[in-house]
Automatic annotation (TrEMBL):
This is Zinc transporter. It comes from the Bacteria. It is found in: Cell membrane. The chain crosses the membrane at residues 286-310, 322-341. The lineage of its organism: Bacteria, Pseudomonadati, Pseudomonadota, Betaproteobacteria, Burkholderiales. Pfam families: CorA (PF01544). Keywords: Cell inner membrane, Cell membrane, Ion transport, Membrane, Transmembrane, Transmembrane helix, Transport, Zinc.
Length: 346
């Protein structure tokens, strides 16, 4: 699809090419980004191959494509082995930015493009950064990466790998803030329903929201130890300004995570309040059942005794025997009810 006049050219489709490349750009701080239509246009691939004129090469791959990892292993020979090890980690991957030799490795978790407030709608982005090369890969479409692509196509000046990473973290923080805002609005509605005495329909949704907040906080919070080690001993090509931008982006991200923690605590208090209300309702139901059982004790006892088919049953031949027994049962029931009510008042 042709782009607007003066805007950088876009790749032909959102899908990937034969090597799994979703998009590729040559970025320069003083020139519009140059889009690559296929991975072969980036060859030969070397961390310093695109840095001679101050530009940086960004390649974004789809790991669901069978040839993506094979292409990276064949052509990105300078990638550290830890990058490929990170691609095959377990499902629970923490967000982190760490140094590996002269490269930076980043594992960033973000919400998927079709996020629908489900704890499973989180996916991972892997990045490897060197002076003139940024390689990123994912298995599911992510919102933050899509916003970064749109920023590059709009012509925003992103002339280094650290600027790409900082922009990605800021976009992720913005998207996370939007999620927290929507979740807070939903929690407000549920809280109003609970205060109005209608907790039945919201119990499952409260639990779902809490699971979501816990998963967001666990997976999206960057590991502070890895980030501090990287910022204290960065590669030589990382400038002081880039380090400061990355630190500010991390601090902004920490503020959003603080909002998530506060919302998580609020949801926990709502769950406790709802559990208290349910326990009180159960106690009332149990007390009512107990009182009915106690009040029915005289009639059950007397009917059981007089129902035995043996001789000598009192009042069996008396003309008013039924009414005498009825009065006796009523008296015993009244006495038990009086004792129970007096004990409750105490």
């Amino acid at each position: 699809m042709p782009g607007l006049p003066g805007a950088p050219a876009a790749i032909s489709s959102y899908g990937c090419d034969a090597d799994g490349l979703i998009c590729g750009y040559r970025l320069h701080p003083e020139r519009p980004a140059q889009a690559l239509s296929q991975a072969s246009e980036a060859l030969p691939l070397h961390p310093d191959s695109a840095a001679a004129d101050g530009s940086v090469l960004w390649l974004h791959f789809n790991l669901s494509h069978a040839g993506a990892e094979a292409w990276l292993r064949k052509h990105a020979t300078d990638l550290p082995e830890s990058f490929f090890e990170a691609l095959h980690e377990s499902a629970s991957r923490s967000t982190r930015i760490e140094r590996d030799g002269d490269s930076l490795l980043a594992v960033i978790n973000d919400v998927t493009f079709d996020f629908s407030f489900e704890a499973s709608d989180l996916a991972t982005l892997w990045l490897a950064l060197s002076p003139g090369l940024v390689l990123s890969a994912r298995r599911r479409p992510l919102r933050a990466v899509d916003r970064l692509r749109m920023a590059v196509r709009r012509g925003e000046p992103l002339g280094s790998g650290l600027e790409l990473l900082t922009h990605l973290l800021n976009d992720q923080a913005d998207e996370l803030q939007r999620i927290v805002r929507q979740a807070t609005q939903r929690v407000d509605e549920i809280e109003d329903a609970l205060l109005a005495g209608r907790p039945e329909a919201q119990t499952a949704e409260i639990a779902s929201l809490r699971r979501l907040m816990v998963r967001l906080q666990r997976l999206l919070a960057p590991e502070p130890s890895a980030l501090m080690r990287m910022l204290s001993r960065p590669p030589a090509w990382v400038t002081v300004e880039a380090r400061e931008q990355l630190r500010r982006a991390s601090e902004e991200f920490a503020l959003v995570l603080g909002d998530i923690a506060a919302l998580q605590e609020r949801i926990k208090l709502m769950q406790d309040e709802n559990a208290t209300r349910v326990a009180e309702a159960n106690n009332r139901s149990l007390f009512t059942l107990t009182m009915v059982t106690v009040l029915a004790l005289p009639i059950n006892l007397v009917s059981g005794l007089f129902g035995m088919n043996v001789g000598g049953i009192p009042l069996a031949e008396h003309g008013r025997g039924f009414w005498i027994m009825l009065a006796l049962i009523a008296g015993l029931t009244g006495a038990i009810a009086f004792l129970a009510l007096r004990r409750m008042r105490r």
